Amino acid sequence: MNKKIHLTPVSIFHYIRLIYRSLLFLAAFFAYIFGKLDEISSRPLIMSVIWVVFVVEMLFRFFPSRLESPGCQKQFARNYIKTGRTDIVMQDNHATMLVALTWIMFNGVIGLLKMSDILDDGFMILLSCAYSICDMICILFFCPFQTWFLKNKCCGTCRIYNWDYAMMFTPLFFVKSAFSWSLLILAVALLLRWEVAVYKYPERFSENTNEYLHCQNCTEKLCTHKKQLKTLWVKAAEFSKERIKKLQK
Predict the structure, then answer these.
(1) Phi first, then psi: what are they for 3, rounded to 5°?
(2) Under a CB-based contact definition with an 8 Å cutoff, are residues 73 and 65 in contact?
(3) I want to staple 180 with a disulfide (CB 3.0 to 4.6 A). Which of 26, 65, 152, 172 is the partner?
(4) What does the alpha-carbon distance between residue 233 and residue 137 come to, in Å, rounded to a whole number?
(5) Phi, psi at residue 210, to the nearest 5°?
């Protein structure tokens, strides 16, 4: 008999964020399509809700929380559990820089389109909302940065976990308003605090030296769901092959 998988409070919180971020994206999308959201001031209610939601999220990220992923909580002193080892191992800095350069180049192209008036402010806001959904997809289902660049085993050991908001709000760099730049400045502050912690306390970020990052201490357990999803994809592919064979007979 298969054991029933119970979602942890941390993973439930991830799903809740996925839901309300998706709703924010849909609200911005319909405002853009039907109301032509090309000016920040044209939809003050939607903009205010987006601003408040993400400012609150980011402010909470500055402090320890039991509802956040261990991946972003390992920076705090209270989550450093010594293993007795001194061999600090983290993701390759070259891979980390490659992620940063790839992201900057990709969004730089979008920024050039914005400065050429091919794209407008509304599109950049919509893109940031879309990135916020992709952020949750990376955590819950599939992360291209983990798979293709960093090769870390899970979010708990991710070298760039707290880059998420800075990456999310990169398009807002090209939107000239207090709304956009205040979000981006707060996101960059989170990133800088993270990077300072990485270089000042690297032992907190290595599974070899921090027992908090060991699987038995994980409060997230999302790797189970990702494995189940991979198994489902394999079974679906096998089922499709069998159906095609039967139809070809």
Answers:
(1) -75, 140
(2) yes
(3) 172
(4) 16
(5) -125, 110
